[in-house]
Amino acid sequence: MAETSHPAFAKACHLLGIEERRGPIDPVSTLVDLDWVADHVDDATLAVVGSACNYGYGTLDPIRELGAIAGERGVGCHVDSCLGGFLLPFAEELGYPVPAFDLRVPGVTSISADTHKYGYAFEGTSTLLFADRELRNAQYFYMTDWSGGKYCS
Ligand SMILES: Cc1ncc(COP(=O)(O)O)c(C=O)c1O
């Protein structure tokens, strides 16, 4: 992921024991160095991450190119659209030149969009969408033999 990716990824990687790799950005465009990303995907990589948009600058990572790298290497590609997910689709409808940044992009496997930001819902609510059902099905947790009843989240 780019250096500009949200600290939420650092936190998740820390808690889950996953190595996080943050690549340099171009100081003018603020976009991640794609060669660096391609060079840092290896056999243990879970996913490439792109932001649409990032928190610090509001710029969009090159999602099409990140999706292509991930697709070629057979790893996931998550788009963090927590901030932009409820802005960019409307900007696109208004005719602004918004590059494809979501599940339409080949190679993108998941995208997050925070309802609690520009969805104007309560803090703590959010969405996570998956490109395929199998990946989504891996997110469910069931406990069916609990004394309190059947639990599913
Ligand atoms: C781009 C981006 N990604 C992720 C997050 C993390 O969101 P949350 O605090 O809901 O985990 C934020 C929050 O500011 C954000 O702006």
Could you explain how this protein is built, in words?
The structure is a single chain. With 153 residues, the chain is of the alpha/beta class. It has one domain (7-152): Type I PLP-dependent aspartate aminotransferase-like (Major domain) (Aspartate Aminotransferase, domain 2). The chain has 5 helices and 6 strands. It has helices at residues 7-16, 34-39, 63-73, 88-93, 133-137, and strands at 47-51, 76-80, 110-113, 127-130, 142-146, 149-152. The strands form 2 sheets. Strands 1-2-3-4 form a 4-stranded mixed sheet. β1 (47-51), α3 and β2 form a beta-alpha-beta unit. It is globular and about 60 Å long. The relative contact order is 0.13. Residues 6, 8, 51, 54-55, 80, 82-83, 114, 126 line the site of pyridoxal-5'-phosphate (PLP).
- Largest sheet, strands/sense/barrel: 4 strands, mixed
> What are the secondary-structure elements, in order, as H or E?
HHEHEHEEHEE
The neighbouring-strand order within the major sheet is 1-2-3-4
Ligand species: pyridoxal-5'-phosphate
pLDDT < 50 stretches: none
**The CATH class:** Alpha Beta
Can you tell me the CATH superfamily? Type I PLP-dependent aspartate aminotransferase-like (Major domain)
Silhouette: globular
Beta strands, count: 6
Number of discrete domains? 1
- At the fold tier of CATH, the topology name is Aspartate Aminotransferase, domain 2
Estimate percent helicity: 10-25%
Strand content: 15-25%
Second CATH tier, the architecture: 3-Layer(aba) Sandwich
Question: Could you tell me the mean pLDDT?
Answer: 97
Global Rg: 17 Å
What structural class do helix, strand and pairing data support? Answer: alpha/beta
